[in-house]
Amino acid sequence: MSDTEDQINDEEKAAIVHGFINHAPPGEVDDVIRDSRILLNDDNTFKDGIVEALSKYQQSQFMPVNVDDENAVLLTAHGLQDNGRFIDPATGKSFRFDFSKKSCVDIEDGSVDNGDAESWRSEIDAAISEYVKEYYPAGVSTVYGSQDGSDILITACIEDHKYSPENFWNGKWRSEWKITISGNSATVAGVLKTQVHYYEDGNVQLVSQKECKDEVSSVSSEKQLAEAVRKLVEKFEHEYQAGVFDNYNNMSTTTFKALRRQLPVTRTKIDWNKILGYQIGKEIGGK
Amino acid sequence: MANLDKQLDAALDLMRRLPPQKAEKNLSDCIDLVPELCEDLLASVDQPLRILKDSQTGKDYLLCDYNRDGDSYRSPWSNTYDPPLSDGAIPSDQLRDLEINANAAIDSYREMYYEGGISSVYLWDLDHGFAGAILIKKVGDLSTKIKGCWDSIHVIEVQEKSGGRNAHYKLTSTIMLWLQTSKAASGTMNLGGNLTRQVEKDSPLNESNSHIANIGRLIEEMENKMRNTLNEIYFGKTKDIVNDLRSMIPLSDVSKQQQIAEELRAKLGNNQ
């Protein structure tokens, strides 16, 4: 690579830093920010836009936060209002999130109105909460409801993570389920994401994603739909996780071997004196 | 103000955290932020190996910092630079002979273990010995649904001792492994990364223990060990972590099972 004389400007540098933040593995954004700040070496450019970049990142990561002593809620794009405040549709509270203190501030009660969507939202919220307790050791869910013309749109977000930096690994699961109720049928569409980072003497990452979709053809009540949604979510998420495990086994036995064998076909290690002899023989025999 | 050493540490830490699937972009972004670190970063951060074709012999060879001079790369087959350089760095005549034989030996090694792929060996002189880079690349395009790539980067330092009857070898090996699958049940799975290990060894130098044999054995042992470690980490450890995030069976069943197991343990303990 030749010496580059055309340096990039401050705006481009800030964009690079925001890009780094956007790609931080779960549980490591603080480290990425610290490293980026040292590389940038210009606190004015650094401060410009850093909070927005961090907020956007944590929203895409479905960061769980405590809105009060008993309730956790996820930070997501669905919960972000135009005024920069986040909502918790379950408790009805809205708040700002202070990223340096890592806590909810300016909390206000009774500031969320889900309108006609609320009866559907609360039943699905109850079913999903129960489902998350059943399958996620430390999972948190947040279910939003809104009206879209004559349709009702319910968005259920699930997050679980395990951070073990002392053992050089971190992992996160995110699912996002969109339930669109139109007349007396509903579509259920999900995006499932897993990310794992292992970094002892190296850097290994798994990034995986799956999309799924199905219909609930006849919706008779809020409770009935909530049960049907829960069944579908459970089925799809189980299928995905089982598929991931199967694929792991397949990759280990088949794909990995096709890249490099454990041993040569001879089933013994190489005789390095023979290898050289073979080469010399080749040369004596002429090219 | 941050000094250059601190910035290099920060860049290396960042490279261990950002997704390895985007290693080249991550590196060029770091260099854009701190252009003064360009040479240091290129020398210390391993990148997926690029390939050039030697126009003289028609054979492919692999590119790294060790066969680079400016913007040109030296082919181990014809010992010439592409683009051509009138005064590009090349090994001494004696070392070049060793380099030719090393390339041939590693070529055979590669065929036995990788059944395909490309390899290249580059040597350079040191004060009391020599050093080398041994590179191997294997791409697997097994189907439209499964893609993979293995890159080995071995750097060896050889110090001759006792009047040429012994040698000390220091091997630093990095393996970059990347697998991507796209299947119905598991969606897209992208598993990528690298591991680095080091080993040092003293070996005698004689007819059945030439430099090439000693280095070859070290590399073979190292690659076999690392292959096992990669298998454990890629397909074992990361899988276990996914299992920690979501349970395949209801957690209430898991705690029931644990309760039964504890009761059994207590019973067995009482009967002893």
Architecture overview:
The complex is a heterodimer of chains A (287) and B (272). Chain A is of the alpha+beta class. Chain A is built from seven helices and ten strands. Chain A has helices at residues 10-22, 29-40, 43-47, 50-60, 118-135, 222-259, 272-284, and strands at 63-66, 72-75, 86-88, 93-98, 103-108, 140-148, 151-164, 169-182, 185-198, 202-216. A five-stranded antiparallel beta sheet of chain A has the order 6-7-8-9-10, covered by helices on one side. In chain A, strands 3-4-5 form a three-stranded antiparallel beta sheet, with no helix packed on it. In chain A, helix 5 (118-135) packs across helix 6. The longest helix of chain A is centred in the last third of the chain and has 38 residues, at 222-259. In chain A, 41% of the residues are buried. With 272 residues, chain B is of the alpha+beta class. Helix content of chain B is 40%, strand content 33%. Chain B has helices at residues 4-17, 23-33, 38-44, 93-114, 211-245, 251-270; strands spanning 50-53, 60-63, 68-69, 72-74, 81-82, 118-126, 129-141, 146-161, 166-183, 187-204. In chain B, the strands form three sheets. A five-stranded antiparallel beta sheet of chain B has the order 6-7-8-9-10. Chain B has a three-stranded antiparallel beta sheet with strand order 3-4-5, with no helix packed on it. A two-stranded antiparallel ribbon of chain B has the order 1-2. In chain B, strand 4 and strand 5 (81-82) form a beta hairpin. The relative contact order of chain B is 0.08. The model of chain B has no long low-confidence stretch (mean pLDDT 93). At the A-B interface, helix 1, helix 2, helix 5, strand 7 and strand 8 of A face helix 1, helix 2, helix 4, strand 8 and strand 9 of B.
